[in-house]
Design goal:
By secondary structure, the protein is an alpha/beta fold. Helices cover 40% and strands 13% of the residues. The chain is built from 18 helices and 14 strands. β10 and β11 form a beta hairpin. α12 packs across α17. It is globular and about 70 Å long. InterPro entries: AMPK_gamma/SDS23_families, CBS_dom, CBS_dom_sf.
């Protein structure tokens, strides 16, 4: 008799859901059955993340140190532990929030854009004076320490090396981009980058509150928070030991779904075609995109302003994508700034090409090397889940038979189609959680 191959923890979890599915009341709709199944399983049952993935960053870490930690562990985000919290602090007081790799980079570039505009509006010979003026204005408008803005302004001046004036019609990305590739190398070697603390950017771009799950919370709660409530990751806390026991991400959930292929409960849902589920949610007319010759900083600025995690880079007609840039790709501006130094400006197209060459030279595996991953509206949700999981990507673009863009599907979109929120489900669940700042999503 042939021995059955061992099942993954995710597949075993799928079998548990299968047992629950089989005993659901027959009058329930498939959607109600799924909700009931997920409500019956505690998050303590979710497979644990690798130890290297369950880390935190101390609030007194510098931005440079935080970037190094996240890059080393290949993490997109991590909880921020408040070093000033007392020993007997509860978990909600022990952590300040969750900071994303991209949030650090976008905040830093945002400060640099402002300083770049002010510096290039003057002259290199007046750099220090202009830097102090920029400090006063930026401190008043952004609430940032003047000393920090002076540092940014001087970095921008050093990177500029120009006396050309920039008119009011220029944007921050255009101003920074016109400084050339050396701008990022200068920025990452600056005292500003090395001395600004993680706690100094609390509540800024892509900074989420420390919204944690307890082990007794259910899968349904977790899935709703990762979809409807737009959380990218959720720490699971051990109240007894006041520690983070696990971290559950959107990617981990989609991987679990991929491991459940073949099970009745999954196939009942997974066989549906995208258009039958109302996907893509973001269609062609709503799709935000950037043209290949635009400055790469414009890409990240659009993501920040629109609250999205990635967008396609399109050729001249605007219909076909030549690549995808995700918010996490901003890391390449900070971890490998030297690769741009020979460029007078860094366009979206240049960025894609340079980073791909860098990754190939370093023999690194990255979604950046995949180009644009696509599907059609007639594909099933199962096929899309398998592709997203196999390629380790967060979005897939929907195209027509001629390869023209028709929309995009994200991990959050998929999870949102798996469950629905019952009336008054969360009650007082969010009480005591610090409200998410208006600009924290990106």
């Amino acid at each position: 008799m042939e021995e059955e191959s061992p099942r993954s923890p995710e597949a075993k979890l799928g079998l548990r859901l299968e047992d629950l599915w089989d005993i659901q009341q027959p009058q329930l709709t498939p959607s109600e059955k799924l909700n009931s199944c997920f409500e019956s399983i505690p998050v303590s049952s979710f497979p644990p993340a690798a130890p290297s993935q369950v880390i935190d960053i101390t609030s007194n870490s510098s931005l440079a140190e935080a970037v190094q930690i996240l890059s080393k562990h290949k993490l997109l985000s991590a909880p921020v532990r408040n070093v000033e919290a007392p020993e007997d602090a509860s978990w909600i007081d022990r952590y300040m929030g969750i900071v994303e790799f991209a949030g650090i980079a976008v905040w830093l570039l945002h400060q640099s854009e402002l300083a770049a505009l002010r510096m290039m509006g003057g002259s290199a010979g007046m750099g220090l004076v202009t830097g102090r003026v920029a400090a006063a204005v930026s401190a008043a408008t952004l609430g940032t320490p003047p000393s920090a803005i002076v540092g940014t302004a001087l970095v921008a001046a050093a990177g500029a090396g120009t006396t050309a004036a920039v008119g009011p019609g220029h944007s921050g990305p255009e101003a920074a981009a016109s400084m050339g590739g050396s701008f990022f190398e200068t920025l990452t070697s600056s005292d500003f980058y090395k001395n600004t603390k993680v706690q100094d950017i609390s509540g800024s771009f892509r900074w989420a509150p420390f919204l944690a799950l307890q082990k007794s919370d259910t899968f349904l709660t977790m899935l709703l928070l990762l979809s409807k409530y737009k959380m990218k990751s959720l720490p699971v806390v051990d109240l007894g030991e006041v520690k983070i026991d696990n971290i559950i991400t959107q990617s981990a959930v989609v991987h679990m779904l991929a491991e459940c292929v073949g099970l009745h409960w999954f196939e009942n849902w997974g066989k549906k075609k995208l258009f039958e589920l109302g996907l893509p949610i973001m269609t062609r007319d709503q799709l935000i995109k950037v043209y290949e010759e635009e400055p790469v900083l414009q890409v990240f600025k659009l993501m920040r302003e629109s609250g999205i995690g990635g967008l396609p880079v399109v050729e001249g007609s605007g219909r076909k994508a030549i690549g995808n840039i995700s918010i996490r790709d901003v890391q390449f501006l900070l971890t490998a700034p030297e690769i741009y130094k020979n460029y007078r400006s860094i366009t979206a197209k240049n960025f894609l090409n340079v980073v791909r060459v860098h990754l190939e030279e370093q023999h690194e595996v990255s979604p950046m090397l995949l180009g644009t991953v696509t599907c059609g509206r007639d594909n099933t949700i199962k096929e899309v889940i398998q592709r997203l999981d196999t390629e380790k990507i967060h979005r897939i673009y929907v195209v027509d038979k001629d390869g023209n863009l028709e929309g995009v599907i994200t991990l959050r979109d998929i999870i949102s189609k798996l469950v629905h929120e019952p009336r008054n489900y969360f009650g007082d669940f969010f009480d005591g959680v610090v409200p998410m700042p208006q600009n924290s999503r990106v």
